[in-house]
Amino acid sequence: MKYPPALTHTALRRLLVAQIPADFADWLDFVAIGALLAFSWQSEPMVFAVLAVAMGLPYLVIGPFSGALVDRMDIRRVMMLSNLGRGLVTALMFLSPNWPILMILIALRSVIDTFFTPAKQAAIQALTEPSIRTSANGLSHAINQSSKIVAPAIGGALLIWVAPPGVFLMNAGVSVLAALLVLRLDPFAKPAAKHQDDAGLFTDVVDGFQDVRGAPVLRLSLIMMAAGFFAMFIYDTLIAPMTRDLGYSQTDLGFSLAAVGAGGVVASLALSFIDDLRQPFLFIAIGSLLSALAIAGLGAVEVTGYPLPVAAYFATFAILGVMSAVTLVPFRTIIQNNVAGEKIGRITALSEALNTVALLIAPFVGASVAAASSIGMAFLLGGAVMLCVAALAFYHRSYR
To answer: For the range 377-380, what are the long-range contacts, defined as Cβ-Cβ under 8 Å and sequence gap of 24 or more?
Structure first.
């Protein structure tokens, strides 16, 4: 039986095992937070907007500096401390008396999380050679996507027996488990940082910007990835009203979202069997093109009122999940293959910050288009943006 090439590396297998509870902890209490705000505290809709800001803004404001710090620190220690920190803050959420305190703790947890993602990407880079990084990133993305499906479902099931604060304590334990699993990793052979001893973090962050600006492959990759996220978030928050307006049920909405996650897992696992992705931008072009057609197709169905069978509706979202992996996994590989080991943290954090800008702006663009015209037009706009990404990727298909 053939296994993904990345699994032949013992150290990488240990890293991926440690990633499972770490990613799981990101989503286990997601439903519990919503239940606590909506049902226990009867919070107003504006509170949920604050929740989105608390979860996302630290990646934009703090993230670049966190990435610069990761470049200066031992990777294993960063991953261990970030998991312990997330566990401690999550445990404190058990004591939250009201939503403002809960939002502060959620924002603090996101601040701590800004260290984990750059450290994880740095670890994957340090443990692999370029030929198997697509395989490693495919497995890592499959774990991430699986956690988004399984963890909220388990969190929701736990609410049958446990009050939302109790789920927070369980999730804190999961983060502690992730920290313990990180201890199984050997110290990383990391290149010595080339920054000056007296240089501040701001200097390192600026240095990261300059590296991206001076490297066409990096600059193109970060811009295209952010544009892809922008296209996705234009319509992402409108999936629920789209489902309603097309006459489907709440159950159908759940199946649609599950189809996205399942498609992402299947495609990520398929990519993990690739030994060496020789034309990553061609993969990105194909994935972006098919995503554009699927997104625009959903928009056209809403605009024209065409009666789309529910099975076809689910299949379209599954295609979107597949194509999201086909584009995102190559992007991660390109960045790792084109960034020096002593700078991978700051570049990864910069990428996360750009993606967060898309997350914070695109939903309002989509909502404005939907209010001025229709929900379908917002989907068509998202498809048009993704089509531009596809064209740009195809034009630069020779890049690696």
So the answer is: 377/299, 377/303, 378/234, 378/235, 378/238, 378/299, 379/234, 379/235, 379/238, 379/242, 379/295, 379/296, 379/298, 379/299, 379/302, 380/295, 380/296, 380/299, 380/300, 380/303
Residue 307: predicted pLDDT: 85
Token pair in block for residue 345: 């943290």
CA atoms of 26 and 260, how far apart (whole Å): 18
Tell me the torsion sign for CA atoms 144, 145, 146, 148.
positive
Taken as a whole, the chain contains a residue count of 400
What is the predicted pLDDT for the residue at 320? 95
Alpha-carbon gap, residue 286 to 400, rounded angstroms: 16
Residue 391: in which H helix or E strand, if any? helix 375-395
Expressed in percent and rounded to 5, the helix, strand and coil fractions of the chain are 80, 0, 20
The mean per-residue pLDDT over the stretch 188-201 comes to 60
pLDDT in tens, 21-48: 999 999 999 889 988 988 889 888 788 8
Q: What is the mean pLDDT of residues 174-196?
A: 79
**For residues 137 and 125, is the Cβ–Cβ distance under 8 A?**
no
- The pLDDT value given to residue 196: 47
- pLDDT tops 60 at residue 207: yes
Residue 44's contacts (CB-CB under 8 Å, 6 or more residues apart) are: none
Q: How far is CA 4 from CA 9, 10, 135, 189, 359, in A?
A: 10, 13, 6, 24, 32
